[in-house]
Amino acid sequence: MMKIRGRIFAVDDDELIVTMLARALKNEGYEVQFQTTPQDVVANIIAWQPDIVFLDVDLAEEMTGFDILAALKKDGVGAEVVMLTADDSAESAIRAMKLGAVEYFTKPFNLDEIKIITGNIIENIRRKAEIDYHRERVCPYFEHGLVGESALMKEILKMAEKLVQARAETILITGESGSGKEVLARYLHCRRQKAETAGQSHSGPFFAVNCTALPENLIESELFGHVKGAFTDARVDKKGIFELAGDGTLLLDEIGDMRLDLQAKLLRVLEERTVRRLGGSVDLPVEATVIVTTNKDLKAAAEQGDFRKDLFFRLSTFAMQLPPLRERGDDIVLLANHFLRYFASKYLKKGIKGFAVEAEKAMLSYGWPGNVRELRNLIERCVVLEEAETITKEHLLPNLGGWAGIAPAPSSRILLPEDGISLEELEKDLIRQALERTGANQAKAAKLLGISYDTLRYQMKKFALS
Ligand SMILES: Nc1ncnc2c1ncn2[C@@H]1O[C@H](COP(=O)(O)OP(=O)(O)OP(=O)(O)O)[C@@H](O)[C@H]1O
Ligand SMILES: [Mg+2]
Fold first, then answer.
1. How far is the CA of 123 from the centre of ligand 1 (A)?
2. Which of 327, 302, 318 has the alpha carbon at shortest distance from 180?
């Protein structure tokens, strides 16, 4: 069966016109529905959900094509509308466009022209849907992907919002490894895509470039592009990432490790907002938001001459510092639950429900040198390996590398009760327990208590135990 190219609804009081239109469009692979009276026309169109509606302006006195068009737009119907009319005055064409029609045809019209225009409209609808889909797919994920309700993280989100509103062109994000610098960069990208500035929405992609992962000899042409013949291997023109990012976002990861000569070039791009391909002679505009990240102390690096001071100052204008996970308090538990749900669903282990109180306490007192990434990996391992409904502290412990930093687990020691204890009573109680456990074998009981046989005999006598 032929694939349906689109759904079209045609309305005209002239039977001849609608049947001719329907036949032509059906032959082109469209599904077509039509009617020749104004009766229930708006409801019928809404119910059928067409991609395009052809509307005759002079349909009926009581209801013109303009009335229908206005009603459809008022209802927020997504279909594109093409007006058909016998009247070729500019006035009615303008009126149609103002009401939101995409096209306007004067009768008698050329069917081939109708076919071409219809194809173009359908293609535009598809393209728009693709962009919307892309945006939907990326954005909600990352918006929920950035979890954090602590005061520190709220500050970060507030600042992010301000930078988006201000349309900041260059942003520096610092923070320890695994603290979520890339997550924040993607969040900024999504927020910016959604913020419709002056009726203009951004649809450019998100590009991440790791400044240390690219080979030395390639990084420059990757970033800036090159023209054919710029160097031996440059056989064709190549766009750099600054160009490819369009009005999207370019993330330059681990900027602290960038070569000094490249730092100078980067500074020029950021200041002039233009980029020139290697060997090229034209300055091309840079529209992307440039986000640079590092887990190094750039200030210290700049003072030691490992990082260009001028670039450091340029980057510091809009700088955001992500706090380490250990400083985010309850966010630790929030994130742990977030990852638990995520991985339980991913690995089809819906039986795992949550964390024991002791496990939450343990997570809160741990130092998390690997930050959110370490927490995420830990929870993923637990979900895969454990079967219990509740993740306990014992489940977490063996998986934590740097756990030694934590105080010895309190439950393994005898805690002195708030209002004191009688040492004699305690001794007596422990000796009785030892005798019970060993079936009154005094030699074994003495060993359990770490005292000599004679001492035990003496104590038994003292406490009148036999
Ligand atoms: N706020 C957050 N909410 C949810 N997940 C997060 C958050 N922060 C970080 N993560 C998770 O932790 C992982 C590491 O984050 P990310 O890659 O952004 O860290 P980074 O700071 O760029 O680390 P590195 O310095 O090693 O490049 C991510 O894959 C993400 O799953
Ligand atoms: Mg990173």
1. 38
2. 327
The architecture that CATH gives domain 6-127 is 3-Layer(aba) Sandwich (3.40)
Mean of pLDDT over the chain: 86
Decide yes or no: CATH 1.10.8.60 for domain 326-412.
yes
DSSP state of 404: G
- Best CATH choice for the domain 423-462 from the list 1.10.260, 1.10.357, 1.10.3470, 1.10.10: 1.10.10
Confidence of residue 312 (pLDDT cuts 50, 70, 90): very high
> How confident is the model over 111-157, as pLDDT tens digits?
999 999 999 998 888 777 666 555 544 554 454 568 999 999 999 99
The structural domains of the chain, with segments of one domain joined by +, span 6-127, 155-321, 326-412, 423-462
At 92 the pLDDT is 85
Atom of ligand 1 nearest to the CA of 148: 1
Bigger pLDDT: 201 or 423? 423
29, pLDDT greater than 50 = yes
Q: Find out whether the beta carbon of 323 lies less than 6 Å from any atom of ligand 1.
A: no
Torsion of CA 441, 446, 447, 448, to 10 degrees: 90
User: Do 423-462 and 326-412 fall under one CATH topology?
Assistant: no
Residue 407 pLDDT:
41
Stretch 64-84: mean pLDDT: 90
pLDDT of residue 404: 44
Q: Is the CB of 373 under 6 A from ligand 1?
A: yes
The model's pTM is: 0.61
Q: Which ligand is nearest to the CA of 336?
A: 1
Ligand 1 neighbourhood includes 240 CB (under 6 angstroms): no
155-321 belongs to which homologous superfamily? Answer: P-loop containing nucleotide triphosphate hydrolases (3.40.50.300)
Cβ of 191 closer than 6 Å to ligand 1, yes or no, is no
Distance 374 CA to ligand 1 centre (A): 9
Say if ligand 1 is within 6 A of residue 395 CB. no
